[in-house]
Structure prediction request, 416 residues.
Amino acid sequence: MFNQSFTALREELEKTSSYREKLDIWINRFGINYCATYINEDQELSILPETSSEIEDYNKMQYNLWKNHLFSFKGKEKYCKTDLFSRVDDLNKQLLLSPFKDEVIKQTKTQILVQYESEVNSKTKQYFNNLIIGKPEPFNLKIWELTELINYIDANEAYKFLCYLHNQNMIIKEAFLSHAADVIAERDKGMTWTQIAKYFTERAVQFNRDIPYADKNFLNLEDKNGKKVSNKRTAFFENLKAFSPNEQFEIINDLCDSYSGTPGAIQLKQLLITQYKDLRMTSPIDDSAEKIEEVSGILSMFPKAEAAYNTAVEKFKNNIYQRNAVDDLRLSLELLVKEILNNEKSLENQQAELKKFLTSRKVLPEIANLIWANIDNITKYHNRYVKHDDNVGKTDSETMLDMTTTIIKIIIKAAT
Prediction:
């Protein structure tokens, strides 16, 4: 007898528009230990990927599923306390008990390096060492075996913890945190207090921090002296101070992306990446994932720009931080502006028409000026360093990826 659930699943899969949607449906149906092929009588359904982008989505889905499983209380004891946040939590407890914090950090670094040199299997050791020298494994070349995934998860979490230890002596200056609060919690265009309280509460739970202001009713907020808090920017600033420098970087970076239309958010993100990039908690594999996902859909309306952008992203994924990758990013932006404005001018000569277009789409003049200022910086960097010099570093390349992606997102939103 034909299986009705098979028919229902097939119909649901046929309604999807992307491979990622199919994966989500499949995982919800079968769970973490899912079968890749579902056979019923003489028919079959398969979730196995075919293209390189599908292989990447499939591997990342597997990676995240198994990472969450291994580091939950249901995971094996060997893994459940070796994720980044568990390691950081244990380190913080140790630091509280010792007056010699530098020595604790030094010994912890040594321990993790020794462990991943002599106490893990050869594959995990190889992954760990490659991450240290900036060579993450590509996720789009083949379907990863489960043992490979588990080894890579182990190595990647250890690598992120080593980065955390390396950056322990770095801090984000309070003046910068205060400026971030002024921008993101700006009185008229910034986050509302309800949004701020909800966001920081979620982050406090994630990072196991105590924040001073969590009440969603702003009128209830009082400082430690019992005085009413004067404005939401002050409360935002005090909440931000409760997190570690790495966590502060992640929070500010995330909010700049989520509220990119807020006056000053683009410039704030640019300053954050330029001044404090070493505080990222993510590894090279994690760094570009959200950016790529963010623009992959909206660029499809502009095929020429999409092709150049995807070429650049592919080079980043394969650890190619050379001038041609950055050149592709700039070309993508130039082609996008040409398609939107329906002309053939070079990017440097689009200032007047692009500003006119943006203001016609109700983009504030200040934001339009800021967008152009960033485009101008991109073109100047390209003309000075990229055109005639192959020596474009990884940090500069990632900064250009961040800036270009943000600008592309804002321009497309205005155009559509």
Observations:
- The beta strands are 37-40, 43-46.
